[in-house]
Every structure is written in C-alpha cells, then in structure tokens.
Design a protein that fits this description.
Strands 1, 2, 3, 4, 5, 6, 7, 10, 11, 13 and 16 form an 11-stranded mixed sheet that branches. The chain has a 5-stranded mixed sheet with strand order 8-18-17-14-15, with no helix packed on it. A two-stranded antiparallel ribbon has the order 9-12. The protein is built from 13 helices and 18 strands. The chain folds into 2 domains: 313 residues, Fumarylacetoacetate hydrolase, domain 2; 66 residues. The radius of gyration is 21 Å and the shape is globular. Keywords: Hydrolase, Metal-binding. GO terms for molecular function: hydrolase activity; metal ion binding.
Length: 401
C-alpha cells in the first residue's frame, strides 16, 4: 500500500504563505495520554514547529469562543513540542512511533455539519444518482437527459428567487423535478450532520469507506468553523466522503452514506480569520483534488468557491439562525462542485474509490489535506470521545483554564 505522506513534508501541507497566518491544530501527546491544542509557528532556523497552548486553551472550542481567536492564538504561550516535519511524519498509523506525538483533526467539541447541493454541477449529479437508483450503469444516459432539460442555467440562478421558482414549475411539468433540485434552487438549503464531535480524522491519517459501497467518491470542500454566537472565525479543508450508491437508492439513507467511521477528514490546520485571511478569501478560493490509486489511476479536478449557489454566510445562517443552538460551536462543510464521472473501469461505470487511494485536497490559503482510503473497519478505531477528553483534561488540571 502506497505511503500516505510520500513526498509530503511540512512545507507541502502548509498554506502558500507558510506560518504567516493564525494556524491552530491538535496533536496527540502520548506523554499526556491525550490531545493538545497547538499553534503552528516559525521555529529556530525557520522550520515550522508546534507549540502546545493547551494551558491557555484546553480545547479548540475554547479558542474559537474568544472575541478575537486569531489574536488570542498569537498571544498564547506554551511548550514547543517539536517540529511540524517530525510530528507529521509520525502521523501515518502504519509507521507511527506510539511514544511520540502525531497530528489530529484541528477541531474537537464542535458539531460537524455539512451543506449539500450547493453547486449546480454536483446538484445535477445528485439528480442522476436519484434517478439511477444507485446504479452507475444507468448514469451516463440519465446525465445526458438531465443536461438537456436543465443546461447551465442553474449556475446563474439564485436559490429561492422568482426565476428559480419559474424553472421549478417547468421541471415539474416535464416530470423532471427532484428532491435535489428542491434544495439546489429552492428556498431552503440542505444542512445535515456529517459526523460526531471528536470523530474526524486529520491530515496523514486514513479515511474510511463503507465496505458495502460500490460507487463512491471524495468531496473536496472548505469547512467553516463557527462560534456559538454565529461568528465565522476560521476555515479548514475537508473531505465529505460520499457513498453515491447508498444515497442514490434513497435520500433517507443519507446518514448511512455520510456518517461512517473515519469518513470525515479535516485539516491540516484551522486558519483563523484576521486581516490577512477572511471569509472573502474563502469566497474566492479554489479547492483542488488529486486522487492517485495503486492501480496507476489518476484523477484531478477543481472546485471554485466563486461558483457556489448560496453564499457561505447564508449557509451558516441556515445552519444556526434562531432555530438551532450550538453551545460548543459548529463546523460547516460548504459543499463541492466536483462530481467525478471519468470511467475508472468499465465504460459507463464512472469513478469510484479503491482501497489504497491517496486523496490530496488543496487550497492556497489553507494548505493540503492528505489521506489514504481504507474500509471503515480497517481504519484506526475511534475510542477517545467527549467523556475521555473531560477526564483527561481534569487529570491534567486544565478544566479550570
């Protein structure tokens, strides 16, 4: 099986401006038998290093709840744990020295939510999934039919607008309406729960595929980190791993298609908003994807956030608004326009993952998230939940911090 981090070092996973931004993350510290919050900073000789600031902020959630998280991160002092190169290299499970630190996902107690069908291209693919009933053999013909009916008009439509409602009426009359079109151009965004708090995997770890799925794909996305008072405080990269056959059979299987062991990847770090990086930078960013298989297969693509149908702030409003409370904040995947249709095997079968695929998701301002795909039951088991975290922090005398 190909190494997860082959040719990847600290510089390769950091944003283009290195450690200039306010970068926060989490590592597992074996000497503490638990996780620590770290700041990514320039060390001696210019090499990036990780500084443990858990004494000031026991959780990422606590950091995000401050009035100015980026400034708070820069003020925080703590112990230098090691170089980013060394800790990153120790992260892949097959080569890890369990006595040394490794990277974790850069969030902890936040709810992990996702917005679906936020791009026209991916929306059409969801329509195809639904009409094909999860059968990739039927997808090619249906893709042509749906494209003939809808074309590219949806890229210019504002969801919920009179123009969108007029198109809805036409599609209903032609028998082509779909629940995916409803959330794609209708007034209400699709917001669902992606994963449990603390269950996400980080950069350099393995991401999970349900063993029963035969048609699936990565979903490269930006994920916003939101405080409990609805302030959008930062962003990271994510892979909203999707099982197209499960969801295609029935939208009621969305939970099974989305929430599986190790199926939510986030990282490499949380970049907190400041004068040099803001929500406007997210709106303009381009997320790229590279998939490399052990069979020699290669796939690449991009997802420009500028083509999103709903503004990121509107999606956060739809997630929280006045009807939901998240006392520990939330993380929101913004969706993707990347829906791979390139055949990997037999003609018409389209793309699906194979065990061992390496997935690299990049963005200039957020760095690179690197994972390798395995079946869920073969990934590292998740055993350290909220109760374990509270006991660990209490034993370290950090709960009063």
């Amino acid at each position: 099986m190909q190494p997860i981090l082959d040719a990847f070092d600290a510089r390769a996973i950091l944003p283009e401006d290195g450690v200039a931004g306010a970068l926060a993350g989490r590592i597992w510290r074996p000497d503490m038998s638990g996780p620590s919050v770290v700041a990514v900073r320039e060390g001696t000789g210019g090499a990036p290093e990780l500084v443990d600031i858990t004494g000031a902020f026991p959780t990422i959630r606590d950091l995000c709840e401050t009035p100015d998280p980026a400034a708070a991160l820069r003020r925080a002092t703590g112990e230098t744990v090691g170089s980013l190169d060394a800790i990153l290299a120790n992260t892949p499970p097959e080569t890890r020295d369990a006595s040394k630190p490794w990277l974790l996902a850069p969030i902890d107690l936040q709810a992990v939510k996702a917005a679906g069908v936020t791009f026209a291209v991916s929306m059409l693919e969801r329509v195809i999934e639904e009409r094909a009933r999860g059968n990739p053999d039927a997808a090619a013909a249906i893709r042509l039919e749906v494209g003939r009916l809808v074309g590219d008009d949806l890229r210019r439509l504002k969801p919920g607008s009179p123009e969108a409602m007029a198109l809805k009426s036409v599609l209903v009359a032609q028998g082509a309406w779909s629940q995916y079109l409803e959330v794609g151009i209708g007034p209400d965004a699709e917001i669902f729960t992606k994963a449990q708090p603390l269950s996400s995997v980080g950069c350099g770890q393995e991401a999970g595929l349900h063993p029963g799925s035969q048609w699936n794909n990565p979903e490269p996305e930006v994920a916003l980190v939101v405080a409990s008072d609805q302030r959008i405080v930062g962003a990271t990269l994510g892979n909203d791993v999707n099982l197209r056959d499960f969801e295609g059979r029935s939208a009621l299987l969305l939970g099974k298609a989305k929430d599986n062991a190790a199926s939510c990847a986030l990282g490499p770090f949380l970049r907190l908003f400041d004068g040099g990086f803001s929500l406007d930078h997210v709106r303009r960013t381009v997320v790229s994807l590279e998939v490399s298989g052990e069979d020699g297969f290669r796939l690449s693509g991009t997802s420009p956030l500028s083509e999103i149908s709903r503004d990121p702030a509107d999606l956060v409003e739809a997630m929280m608004g006045g009807t939901h409370q998240y006392p520990d904040g939330a993380v929101l995947f913004l969706g993707t326009m990347f829906a791979p249709v390139e055949d990997r095997g037999a003609p018409g079968q389209g793309f699906t993952h194979k065990v061992g695929d390496r997935v690299v998701i990049r963005s200039p301002g957020l760095g690179a998230l690197v994972n390798r795909m395995r079946h869920c039951q073969d990934c590292e088991p998740w055993t350290f939940g909220a109760a374990a975290l509270m006991r660990n922090l209490a034993a370290r005398g950090l709960l009063g911090a």
